[in-house]
Amino acid sequence: MKKYLRILLVAGLILTMLVTSVSAAVVLELDNEAKICSEPDEWNSIKIDRLLDNPVDATGAEYLYIRFYLESIDTFAGDGQIEITSFHQADTDELNWKLQNQELVAGWNELKLPLNAPDEAMGTFNPGAVLYYRIYAIINGANSIAVDYVVLGGPNEDLSNLSAAAAPVETEVPAAVESEGPEVSAPAENVAAPATADAGILAAVSLLAISAATVLKMKIR
Questions:
Q1: Which residues form the domain of 182?
Q2: Mean pLDDT: which of 17-31, 88-102, 187-201 is highest?
Q3: Of 57, 53, 48, nearest to 90 (Cα)?
Q4: Are the CB atoms for 36 and 169 separated by under 8 Å?
Q5: Which of 2, 96, 156, 190 is the most buried (most CB within 10 A)?
C-alpha cells in the first residue's frame, strides 16, 4: 500500500511542476496587420512605439520576445534600440538592447532578449508595471520597420501562433506611427499557454487517475 501512495505522491509532484511551468507570457503588442513606419523623423530614425493604457504586470518574465520587420540592412545606419520601460516614455526606468548587437537580416527578425542582461539599464525598471515599448532604427536611405508582436515571458515560449505574416511587408502601406506620439492600442492580454504545456498537464492528470485507480483496486482486493 505504501508503494502506491508513493506513486501518487510522485505523480502529484510531477503535476505541480508542470502546472507551475505553464506559460504566463504577457503581450505588449500583437498586430495581425503588422503596422509599418517608413517616414524618418528629424533624427533619421524610423520607429514603432506604444504607450499601454494601463501598467502590465510581467513579474516573473525572463525574456523579451519581439518579431519585427526591417526592409533593408543596406540603409540601416548601424544604430538603433529596442526599449521597454515602466514609465510613460523612453529613457526612464528602462531596459534596452542595441540593434547593432543583434544579427539582423532584411525581412522578419525574431529576437529573444534576456531581461537580466540588457545592453543598458536606465533608472529602475519595474517588471510589475510595464508601460511602454519602442523600437527604432537610424537609417541613411529608404527603409521601413514594422512590428508583429512584443511579448514578455519565460525561456521557452512558443509564439509561432502569433506570427502575423511570413511574407514581406508591403512598403506602400502608410506609416502607422505619427510624429505627435505613440499610438495607443488596446490593453495587453495574456497569451494562452502553449499546447505542449497543456499536453503535459493532461499526461500528469492521467497518471494521477491511473495511480488512484490502482490504489482503489488494491483496497477492494
A1: 24-192
A2: 88-102
A3: 48
A4: yes
A5: 96
Residue 85 and residue 49 share a domain: yes
- Tally the domains of the chain: 2
Measured over the CA atoms of residue 145, residue 151, residue 156 and residue 162, the dihedral's sign is negative
Q: Which residues contact 183 (CB under 8 A, 6 or more apart)?
A: 35, 50, 176, 177
Q: Pick from 178, 171, 179: which is nearest to 38 by CA?
A: 171
Taking the C-alpha atoms of residue 41 and residue 25, their distance in angstroms, rounded to an integer, is 32
**Per-residue model confidence as pLDDT tens digits over 130-181:** 999 999 999 999 999 999 999 999 999 999 888 765 544 554 433 333 333 3
Q: Which grid cell sits at 27?
A: 503581450
User: Domain holding 111: CATH number?
Assistant: 2.60.120
What's the whole-model pTM score?
Answer: 0.68
Residues 121 and 213 in one domain: no
